[in-house]
Design goal:
By secondary structure, the chain is mostly helical. It contains two helices and no strands. The chain has a domain of about 30 residues. Helices cover about 90% and strands about 0% of the residues. Pfam families: DUF3149.
Length: about 45
């Protein structure tokens, strides 16, 4: 586990890739929430 933490957060490239992954998950979550919200309003 310490190896993976050092690999992800020990260097700038790993940190940047983790930021990209978390931002992508956040954007997908927001789009899913918006889609569900719009689908519920049309009924």
């Amino acid at each position: 586990m310490a190896f993976w933490l050092d690999l992800m957060f020990g260097n700038p490239v790993g940190l940047l890739s983790m930021i990209v992954i978390f931002c992508t998950i956040g954007i997908m979550g927001f789009l899913m929430w918006m889609f569900i919200k719009k689908s519920a309003q049309s009924e």
